[in-house]
Specification:
Length: about 425
């Protein structure tokens, strides 16, 4: 088994590059994207970022990404800084990766590989570890130039940063496919267990409130503030990965289940979105979504758009109510803060808070209670015998008061909200 990164005599010296291929539809400023990439690198243990820069690219070079002049210039810079690892904040093809590593004499990771490495380091539950490993295998299957030392690992990184180096050039796709099949079998058992827990919760009439948002928006800090839990909360990208759920009693005595989920990020690798779908189904099951935003970030609007795109790709129902939580107001100047609070007062779907100091949290909890106090309607439904799935859905969501059989099917007396009715009709 290869030695973990932390066993190295000195930290891995990393250099971060953000290739700027600006286009008319580009939403993010390259300097801010570079800063995010540097934060990603700093999120890995035993990593020292010794330099970073934005590289302007009229167009990417097919073989090396960068042009020959820039290639030599960067080589001298990397050599002088004794760099071990180059992090390219963007997609790098397997050919480009191989050529750059050969020319520069360093290891290289693209954005997807870096995020996978962070997730591998953070996963703690059995499900999280399996999901990250599955995502890494899907990613590596397309790469014919990497060493698959991570196939022997049970936890931690996947050998992109640490490990013995490139020892296997030919891609053993059959071995990877066998690993994928094995992991999917294991994962299916874990997912079944999670589904049993979810089914048990459906029988308890406690609404689920899911926290979502861009990574480092302060979800875990808010979760701790509202529940009294001690979930890891740091000023760090992807400080927490595995989902956490806690019961919360509102002022009226009503109980809810609060769920903290993995943070989103722009260009989140599709392998991770697919692998973590089971975990993120907590969001699909939610009765209310709290979209936590770092309102002090200069690109808070762009981050919100990224979150909306991922929620849409997950298939989150538009009928699920959402409250935007504008967090970190303590980081704003007083004039901006005053203006924000005026805007907040105009909309019930926006709550300005500081999860760190607690300011605005009581008002947020009151807004949650008001939102969940949606008017319930009594209705009689006829469900034909060949639509057993619909009947099962009604029972799972605890909306059936009475039921009787007729020649045409089941007649159910239900009491539900307009949101539940819309979900049922969409089945």
């Amino acid at each position: 088994m290869s030695a973990p990164v932390s066993s190295q005599a000195r930290p891995t010296r990393a250099y971060v590059l953000h290739p700027d291929l600006r286009s008319a539809e580009a939403r993010r400023e390259p300097e801010l994207r570079l800063a995010e990439a540097v934060s990603l690198a700093a999120a890995l243990p035993d990593m020292e970022v010794v330099g970073h820069e934005v590289v302007r690219l009229p167009k990417p070079n097919a073989g090396h990404l960068f042009g020959s002049g820039k290639l030599e210039e960067l080589k001298e810079r990397l050599s002088a800084a004794e760099v071990d690892l180059v992090l390219v904040d963007g997609p790098v093809t397997p050919v480009q990766q191989r050529n750059l590593e050969k020319d520069w004499g360093v290891k290289l990771l693209d954005r997807t590989g870096l995020i996978l490495e962070i997730f591998a380091d953070r996963a703690r539950t059995r499900e999280g570890v399996l999901q990250v490993e599955l995502a890494a295998l899907s990613y590596q299957r397309t790469r014919l130039v990497r060493a698959w030392t991570h196939l022997e690992r049970q936890r931690g990184g996947f050998g992109f940063v640490g490990g013995p180096g490139e020892t296997q050039i030919e891609a053993d796709r059959r071995a990877i496919d066998e690993q994928v099949i094995r992991i999917r079998r294991q994962l299916s058992k874990v997912v079944k267990t999670r589904e049993l827990h979810r089914a048990a919760r459906r029988k308890v009439p406690f609404p689920i409130v899911a926290l979502v948002g861009y990574t480092n928006a302060g979800k875990s800090t808010l979760f701790n503030r509202m529940t009294g839990a001690e979930v890891l909360a740091k000023d760090m990208l992807f400080a927490t990965l595995d989902p956490t759920m806690r019961g919360v009693t509102l002022a009226s005595g009503r109980k809810i289940i609060l769920s903290d989920t993995v943070g989103f990020i722009s260009d989140l690798p599709h392998e991770l979105v697919a692998a973590f779908r089971a975990t993120l189904e907590e969001v699909l099951e939610a009765d209310l979504i709290l979209h936590v935003r770092d309102i002090s970030h200069p690109e808070t609007e762009e981050q919100a758009e990224d979150v909306a795109e991922i929620l849409d790709s997950l298939g989150v129902d538009e009928d699920v109510p959402m409250i935007e939580v504008w967090n970190k107001i303590d980081a704003l100047s007083q004039p901006m803060r005053d203006a924000l609070l005026v805007q907040d007062a105009r909309k019930t779907t926006i709550q300005a808070v500081s999860a760190l100091t607690g300011e605005g949290v009581p008002a947020l909890i009151a807004a949650i209670e008001a939102q969940l106090a949606e008017e319930r309607h009594r209705e009689e439904l006829l469900v034909p015998f060949d639509e057993g799935r619909r009947r099962a859905w009604l029972h799972e969501h605890n909306v059936v008061r009475t039921e009787r059989e007729t020649k045409e099917g089941w007649v159910l007396d239900v009491e539900w909200t307009g949101t539940q009715r819309a979900r049922y009709r969409a089945l």
